[in-house]
Each structure stands twice: as C-alpha cells, then as structure tokens.
Amino acid sequence: MxxxxxxxxxxxxxxxxxxxxxxxxxDTAAEFKKVNRxxxxxxxxxxxxxxxxxxxxxxxxxxxSFELAEQRLSADIINMTSSTSSLIKGETLLDTLxxxxxxxxxxxxxRHAASGAHKLLSERLSCGIVNAGDxxxxxPTQALLDIFTMREKKGSLEGLNVAIVGDILHSRVARSDIIxxxxxxAKVTIxxxxxxxxxxxxxxxxxxxDNLRNAIENADVINMLRIQRERQQASYFPSISEYASIYxxxxxxxxxxxxxxxxxxxxxxxxxxxxxxxxxxxxxxxILEQVTNGLAVRMGVLYLIxxxxxx
Amino acid sequence: MxxxxxxxxxxxxxxxxxxxxxxxxxDTAAEFKKVNRxxxxxxxxxxxxxxxxxxxxxxxxxxxSFELAEQRLSADIINMTSSTSSLIKGETLLDTLxxxxxxxxxxxxxRHAASGAHKLLSERLSCGIVNAGDxxxxxPTQALLDIFTMREKKGSLEGLNVAIVGDILHSRVARSDIIxxxxxxAKVTIxxxxxxxxxxxxxxxxxxxDNLRNAIENADVINMLRIQRERQQASYFPSISEYASIYxxxxxxxxxxxxxxxxxxxxxxxxxxxxxxxxxxxxxxxILEQVTNGLAVRMGVLYLIxxxxxx
Amino acid sequence: MxxxxxxxxxxxxxxxxxxxxxxxxxDTAAEFKKVNRxxxxxxxxxxxxxxxxxxxxxxxxxxxSFELAEQRLSADIINMTSSTSSLIKGETLLDTLxxxxxxxxxxxxxRHAASGAHKLLSERLSCGIVNAGDxxxxxPTQALLDIFTMREKKGSLEGLNVAIVGDILHSRVARSDIIxxxxxxAKVTIxxxxxxxxxxxxxxxxxxxDNLRNAIENADVINMLRIQRERQQASYFPSISEYASIYxxxxxxxxxxxxxxxxxxxxxxxxxxxxxxxxxxxxxxxILEQVTNGLAVRMGVLYLIxxxxxx
Lengths: 311, 311, 311
Known about the structure:
The structure is a homotrimer.
Chain A: H1 19-35, E1 50-55, H2 61-72, E2 76-81, H3 82-85, H4 93-101, E3 107-111, H5 117-124, E4 128-131, H6 140-154, E5 161-165, H7 172-183, E6 187-191, E7 207-209, H8 212-216, E8 221-224, H9 240-247, E9 262-264, H10 277-280, H11 287-308
Helix pairs in contact in A: 1-6, 1-11, 2-11, 6-7, 6-11
C-alpha cells in the first residue's frame, strides 16, 4: 500500500523529495524500527535482491548501518571498498558500475567524494542508487535519521527550532539536515566560528548566528557537528580547547539550553570537545538513539526503492 | 537428472573436460541465467553448504562474480584475501587449506599465481577446488563465460571463426579460451605483436597471425585481450598508442570486421586502447553481456560440483 | 531444555565457569558437531540475531571459525577488523561498542589485546560479549575446543594427564587450558625453557617441569604450543633448531610418548619445530580434528549465550 506512493529508484539528495515523500520515508522507518525490536529482527522484503555497498571513501559507521539494514531485509550483499575498487585499474567509475549492474544488481549504495557522481550514475544506470555520503555536498540518510529522531521525540517538525552548531562549511550532514528540515517546516539556526559559517544559507531562510547562546537558548533541538581533528579544520579556529569552550555544550553553556531540548551528534563524538562527557551520556542526549534510528531509516529507504524497481 | 552426468569434484583446467562436459556446464548455466532474471534471484541449491573464496592474488571482478553466484545458490560464504591469509605465518599453502577443509568446507574457489597449486590441492583435499585464475596458465570460468556468450549469440560453436587479439603470451584467458574453443569445434586465430604471440599454439591447430586485418576479416567473434598497462608489457611493443592503432578495434580497423561479428573483452577495458569507446558501447559489443553470463556460468559450475560431492 | 541451565550473557574467561557449565558447553558442542556432518550444515537457531565480529588484533583462523559458526546458526553477521575500526577516530572503545550495540546487536565476538577490555565491556553493555582472545590473558574458546577434543577421544577428563609444552609465559591458550582442565579434574604438567615457564602456576596445582621426557612420558595428551617465530621469543632460547631438538616432538622424543597419547597443537604449526612433520600428520595427531571441534564449540557457546539474552 504505502510503497505505491514512492516512485523514485534513487535517493541522491533530499532536495529532490517533497515533504510527503520525506514523511513516507519516516513512516516506513517507524515500521522497521518495530521489526528491530522483535525477537527475530528480519523480514524477507529484499530476499533474492542484490545490494552492493560501494564505498570509495572509507566509512565504518555508515557502511555497517547500511549492511545491517540490508541483512535485516534479507538482501544478498556485496561489499566493495576503496582499496578493493582501486584494483580495477584503467577503468572509469561509470564502467566499474556498469559492470556491477550487469551482475543483475538491484541497488548500489555508494559513498564517493565527487558530489556529482551519484546524480550522473543514477541517470546512466537502471539499478537504484543510494547516496551514502558525497564529499561536503550531502548525506541524505544521516539527515533522515536526524529528522526521524526529532519527529519521534518532539511529535512534529512543524515550527520546531533546530540549531546546528559547528563546522557548517565542510559538513555534508548540515547541508542535508537544512534541506530536509526546511521542507518539513522546521526553523533552522546555524552557528559556529565565522570562518566555518557560510552566510549564503540565509537565502534559504536559515538564521545564521555566530554566538552560541543566541543560537541555542530557544532551540528545541541542538545538533552538534563533529570536529574533524584529523583534517585541517584546526586552522579555522585558534585551538580545539578554545573551540570547545566557545562552541561546545559544556557545564557552562548547558545553562542556556532548554531543559527539554534534545542534544544530538552524528558521531563519532570527541568527548569534551563538541559535548562534555556527562552531557553526552545524560538525559537530554539522544546520540545512541540516532544510531538505532539510522538503521530503521536505511531499511525504509532500501525497502521503498526496491519496491519501485521494475524487476 | 542433469547433474548425474557430472562426476568431477574440481574444475582446474578446461583441458580435463570433454566436449560433453563443457556442454553440460553451458546448459546448466543457461538455466541459472533464467534464475538471475527472476524477481527473486535465488535458489536453495547450496543451502547449508560452505564455499571459501581464497584469493591469494588480488581480484575484484572475478571474486565478486563468484561471491554473488554463491549467494544466489544460498551457500554460506567465507572470503579470504591475500592480506588475510598472509597473516597465517609459517604455514604451507597445503596446511592452510587442510585447516579450511577441517571446517567442513564443501568448495574452495582459489586464485593463486602458482599454476600447479590447484592440481596439487585437488589431489590432497576431499573438498571441491575451483580454479579462479592461476598465473598465466588458466582461467577456466572466464573461458566458459566467453564460450557461453558465443554459443548464446551464434547458436553453435562448431566451425565458428574466433580471433583472439593482444598479449597472448601472458594471458591465462587466451590459454583457456583456446583449449575450450577447440574442444567445442571452433576455429581459433591468435593475433598480436610478434613478441607476444607464442608460435607453439600452431601445434594445437590454432592459426597464428600477426596482421590484424588477416586475423579479423573472417572472424565471427573477436576477443580483445586487456593490455596490462600497469605491468611490464609496454616493453614488448613501442608504445600504447602505436599498439592501439595497429592492434586495437578502432574507426579504421572496424572496417575489416564483419557486421555481425561479436566484439568481446574480458574487462576491465582500456577505452581507446583495445577497443575504441563508441565500439565498446556499440551494437556489436557483448562486453557487459559477458559479465552477466559469467555469473550464470559460475553458478552452473558450483552447482554441478556441489552435486557430486559425497556429503 | 539444555539452555535453561545456562545463565550467562558473556564468555570472558573459563575461570568464571563451573565444571557443570563447562560440561554444558561441551555437550552442546557435541550436538552441533553432528549438525556439521549433515548434508545441510545449518540450523535456524540464531535467525534474526546479529553477531558482530570485532577483531582489533588480526586473526584469520579464529575469525573464520567464529564467522562460519555464526553462519551455520543462521545469524546476521558484521565483520569489523582492526583496520576498519581504526577509522573511527577520536572515539573510545566503549563508545565504539555502545554504537554497535545501538544497532540492536545481540552478541559481540571480540579479540582485543587489552586483557581487561572484555570484562569492562561485558559490564557496560547489555549485549553478549564473547572473548576471542585477549593478549596473553585468555582464549576461552580455544581451551574449550582443546578440552572437547580430549574428552571426545579419551572419554573423560577426570584424572587425565595433560602436558602443555612450549612458551607458557606468553600463551593465552596455555592459561585458558590450565584453568579449564583443572576445573574438569585433569592433571596438568607444563614444560618449556625455564625462561618461558612461570613457576607461579604451581600454586594452582600444576606440575612445572623443564625436562621434556619427564613431562610427557606419562601424559595422555600432549599440547604443543606454537613458537611465535615472528615475535621476540627467539631471545628466550638459543635458537629455533635447539628449541626443536629439546622441546619438540620429533623422531627422538616421540620414543617417550605413550602410544595412545594424543598430540595436539593450536595451529598454525611450524613443521619441524614444535612437531616433526610425519608426527603432525600421523595417527596420534588430532590437530585437524581440533579445527573441526573449534567450529562446534563456538556454535555451542553462541547458541547458549543467545538463548539467555532477554530479547
């Protein structure tokens, strides 16, 4: 019944989806969340279908979450990582994936640094393409799990005040969150060091705010982005400890947070940087719940896409 | 019924098979090709059987094709790669595989550079051994998929003119193709730079030809071998571009190709070297069909072997 | 019925188990050994359960044995290796595993060099934890398979004379064997170069013996530990060849071995070092049988643990 409403073979970006389609994914995910609480956490929905996880950029959490989603849908699964695929020398990405498709693969879940790669491939291949993260552009299933968690905890997204804090500039999570949240009627504030805060988001109706207190004191949800300590981000602000004291949720800044506000983080968390340890483990944190919901959301996306593929 | 005719627990080289056995594999593969077109691409034929993919040399395509074949036969699968197996220090290959066999493994699919390794192991182990490529000696399932594709498109192999072009000297694909094609009654011509063209194949009844036009103008099938740019092959001919112009299928040389001749390539293709891009994607090319058929052929081989194992 | 007696969600060390619990594991494993001899080597016992193999230290044999055990129990399986997990930067082990648990994982099978890690995690996580080896501390499933093999071949462990020979100091296998064997009523002798022979085991009732003949001439079972040639062990004794002649089972020392004594080795064997080649392949050797039994024992452990998990 539900899948009749879904007509897309790909999930590339939330910008292509209507609010109704986003709601359909969230509703489908809610059903799969129930499956994951059963004694037998498995449904035969994708039995005899093949899903390839093609991760050109390394990833552990997202890949594991997708792989488990596929297993619980009873799909056949092939994992190809960057090191595996680099062995296919002298071949274009399109040729590699055309070859994979020729194995009667139904869905390719792909992480690739090039932002346009997913779109191009979705047009050239008849199998489904799911974007599992692409450079700094988008990470739609992460945004969907964030939105799912907010809706589950707060009832509705309409009018919800969501603050996203950190390195907005390099964050594919922030970009996808903003797109999805605005479609669902939420109000978004972004906050972070000025050097990491792209002002052009104002055009979309996002409030841009470089003062943490202003950003969070009315927020119903605070999504703290991860600082990529291993990358060059440190050059955008004086030091990690200064960043933590000004833009982290800690014993000081928690005073400005509403007592019923949710504290979110896409993980993996740098304890004591984005969120102080006792707060990350405290009653307002839904960080592990996000992980649980990610699995349900990915099951929902794969289920809907498989349902509208021809074969 | 069909599997009664099959009595071998191993597939090491096509030289050990009769034309009837080759035909049995092709017929079995044809059945599995139908399975791969179904909504549920899976049969329970190898349920409760264990297959180990033991790839001492790296490989992506062949391993993925085998792994998917095993999944669609419902086998339990263990993947061991060169890096994994190198961790088993101070142990001989035979000891490693004796240990694997002690886990009640049914079939070991092995890629190994040493040409004699598969034969030795097939004699020492009671589980089935499938050769997934061994140095420059043989690659029987690649040859089987090539032959399957020719038979499917051309009806019969009897009297079929097949030209194999490129680095014959180092190609396990060429070696296995020649053996299988001759058994099936095809006429084989090999062509390539003189330095890469072993004259001793003449003894087998193969036509040896260093002029491309002569080799291909009567060919019903042209199989273009991959140039291993990353290896030392370049030293066998002046330059890649010269090779491409003399031995590649391009806008010039396509003029000598019969309009209904098939153009094949084992992949991954170097576009513009062995085959010009528009020809590789054109109506005579069956390159992606070969990939599809490879899956069916591997399902057929594993099915036949599993059927004649004792347990 | 049988699983009612089992109440533990974790297997961290054999020291936590009673002789009855050890016997329950051995009896359960004996049932699964029968499954592994069937045509269809698979039971649905863990269908819809998820097991994560989290190997922070590399391992091939133990991981493959666990993975196959999980497949034959029909579990859903995620493999995470050291290289995979090192990608999760800036995160504690507890956070990594809390995240894994949030994916509704039932059991985590973990190899980790830190001896206390398994215990800590078993207290903090509600999913089951199985120790697949931890530094030099313990390797309970290896000990269980050793004990299973002895019981199967000798009928009972009560009063059985077991000699363990080699680098006792660094061996997690020896440590776990000793604990389990003493609980089951066996008499244990340890033997090896004085530098590798911890005298404190005497307190447990173990006979410590640096002369091989004295150690083995009354032994019903001789377990030869692997020399880690790649590690620094060589500095503990003059040379490998001297070690082999003094502490190896070879054409000379086999004269002191009772004709019905079992010769065991955890593998991978250094032929000609711990055991001479013809003896390793001879009638007294049960080395490959140990591999077979390891699979059955791991199936038994996973089955019992899954049966007492809440969900």
